[in-house]
Design brief:
Length: 619
Amino acid sequence: MSFKILADTFSVARDSSHFVLVKNLKSPRTQDQLWVAFKVEGETKYGRSTVQGIVDTLDEVFFDNLELDTYDRFENALKEINLTFKNLKEKRGAGSVGEVSGVIAVFSGTQMHLTQAGDAEAYLVRKGKLTHVSEGLSSKSPDLFVNIASGDLLPEDKILFATSRLLRLATHTQLVQMCKEGVVEAIDSIRELILGDNETSIGVACINTKPTRRSGGATQNSGDEPGLLRQLFSLGWENISSKLGGKAKKQTSSSRSNNLLFGIGILITILIISMIFLVSVRSDNQEREEYRARITQIQDDINTARTTGYSGDKETANNILNRAEGEAQEILEAEQFREEMLIVLEDIGAARDNINNTKRLTDLTPYADLSTERENVEGLGITGLDGILFAYEYNALYAIVPDEVSSPKVINELESVVEATTMFDQNAVVFLTESNKIIEYYEDEFNVMGTDDETWKNGVDIASYGKFLYLLSPEDDQIYKYTHLRSKFSEATDYNVNVDLSGAVSLAIDGSIYVLNEDGGIVRMLKGERQDYIIKDLATDLSDATQIFTLPEHENLYVLDPVENRIVVIQKESDVEGQGMYKEQFYFENIGNIQGFYVSLDENRLYIVTEKEVFEVNV
């Protein structure tokens, strides 16, 4: 009998003086598996390499010479680890390896072999009771691992490995209660407990032993192959004996010789077929075991990504998930474990959404339907003024108060609108047209505005601040600044001093100017000069983004990615000067393509417009 091992893990390293690793080691050549949990503490640059050297040695030695007994292989591996560790200390100095705590456990059939070093501990939860199974294994010996404990496991046992003493954070009863459900629930409870303690660096694994279910029929694994081979040989001999025995009395010695040769030929044919079949079975089994090992690694990566994301490192967590997703796609494309891989890909998506604070909004109820006023409407954008929303298309403006749509007002018969902005100080909405004209909507009238220049500059986007209108012109590598006069605008003045704007697609203003580039980069400018500005944890690609928006009253930047139908929210400032921070993102599903958006002054409501409808979301 053997057990199916279900497991989940959690690890957190609070600072650079701690390194934590929890890992599962397997080989397709045996059902034995290893679990390791290590923590290195100390100001050492070798913490990671020290643990990796131990794990590599363990993997290499334990899964070699599989003809040896499991315990012997485990003992040999620990001796090699101790030697490796001793050599590291001699080579780099005793302080270079830091304080190492670790648990290593072997699961073989129904048995577990266990060793421990430093502060690491192992607990067994069985039938509502918790036992400290690693107690007494530590030693004052200079070797890292000295003693081994072995014992039989029972179905539904739960084993906890921790690189620090868990009983410092919870009682026996609390740990038993945490393990009452599945391993995922147990780790979630332990994670919550540990994250509530801002100082603990730890790695934890929870393992559940599940009995394997065997069907009554034959299975195609290496253990069944000799039996199957005997069946084929038995059938062959039985058939030959029957044929030869039925005609023996009537045959000459020559014919008997021919029959004997015929029988031998049949036997050889059966033997060849059997060997081909067995080689095929072995090959298929080995390939499936390799895929299973990859699947286990993918699941380990998902757990690691969750842990890394919870600790605040979104970039690393997303990189881990991207790698896991690529592996899962490869297995899926190989048409292996299809159903399992689809579930794994769903898990990766759920983990990514959780880490990135992603909200998916489906089947929203329209706030306003523009098509009730014009059936062939093609919504383009939306803005707001004095509590009124204004949705617009290429030649018409729709007022929405509060969720009723007015009849469309024609902006201009000859011009086609591309962008709009609100000039709050002027109590006006201003439109940019394809022919680079500026049209102002003021007191229910539309006026084509002039400038003290002969013509308006070429531009792709506009934004306002106070009495100033800013026109983004990638063609001229410039942002042009205009002043609103009584019935026209001033001449253009150059705003940009030292920023490459050739790839700019949109701009937003709150006193500083934020420019969105076609590669997804965001540049902050002040008085025309580039400012030091990075966005932390922006673990999402913005290369398809087309619009950036903010107002002076806003704490956040908002970016539209129409390809993914999402709005990305970025906190403008963080605790570090010159640094913004990714906050959250909203995906809109089953509503049509987003054409534009607007955020209320208090940032409580987000409005998006599709070709025919307007939607409101409380944020």
